[in-house]
Write a structure and sequence with these properties.
about 220 residues; 10 helices; Rossmann fold; 2 domains; binds magnesium ion; binds 1,6-di-O-phosphono-beta-D-glucopyranose; 6-stranded parallel beta sheet; DNA polymerase, domain 1; about 10% strand; alpha/beta
């Protein structure tokens, strides 16, 4: 019987590249300028969540009007984007290049599902755009992770049923989103954060494409 194709859908920040440090520096600069306390530990809570939700968490309940919120987000984004020209293919996290190449050569459809509105720029700088069949970024859908919408959107672009998709995610909200979408999930990072994924590892260097295909019982 003919089987549907398979898809791997990758989160960007924390899975393919570590842009979290740049997000941290950009938020920290804004926070320092505005006299808001903000530490590296605080930054962990921003992992994988949208720009707006990141600001809410940074504010810790401090009220600001909507116009100020927009200005602050734009300023943070300007600071963040000033770091992006420095990104090159050398910034791919360990194991990423060979994992993507192997999956691509096996005929698996590859997509990215990132909350970032800057995902396209980062992917081009990393030099992996030609391996990807679909890019879902922070512009693609309204409801952000943990809602399933972004991953479902990418699966639609890849023309693969959700039950034949595996999501690779480093954020708790991202694993929640994959599960809500009815997809398989690989959690990258510590168990308290991503232990609810079907498979957990420390990075794409630590697993093989075949390890993941076991989830589909197709090896
Ligand atoms: P931007 P991911 C996420 O990327 C980041 O992890 C998160 O820290 C950031 O706030 C979010 O993108 C939005 O990014 O401000 O560039 O639109 O992990 O979903 O690839
Ligand atoms: Mg992430």
């Amino acid at each position: 019987m003919h089987q549907s194709p398979l898809a791997f859908i990758f989160d960007l920040d924390g899975v393919l590249v570590d842009t979290a440090e740049f997000h941290f520096r950009a938020w920290k600069r804004l926070a320092d300028e505005e006299g808001l306390p903000f530490t590296r530990e605080d930054n962990e809570a921003l992992r994988g969540v949208s720009r707006r939700e990141s600001l809410n968490r940074l504010l810790k309940g401090r009220p600001i009007d909507e116009a100020t919120a927009e200005l602050w987000m734009a300023r943070k984004n300007d600071y963040y984007r000033s770091y992006l020209p420095g990104i090159t293919p050398h910034d791919l996290l360990p194991g990423v290049a060979s994992f993507l190449r192997t999956a691509h050569d096996r005929g698996i459809r590859l997509g990215v599902g990132s909350a970032s509105r800057n995902a396209g720029v980062v992917i081009e700088s990393l030099g992996v755009g030609s391996l990807l069949d679909a890019l879902g970024d922070g512009h693609a859908v309204h409801n952000t992770k943990p809602a399933p919408d972004l991953f479902v959107w990418v699966a639609g672009r890849l023309d693969v049923p959700v039950s034949r998709c595996v999501v690779f995610e480093d954020a708790e909200a991202g694993i929640d989103a994959a599960r809500a979408a009815g997809m398989h999930s690989v959690g990258i990072g510590p168990a308290p954060r991503v232990g609810h994924a079907d498979l957990r590892c420390d990075g794409l260097h630590a697993i093989t494409v075949d390890d993941v295909l076991v989830l589909f019982d197709v090896v």
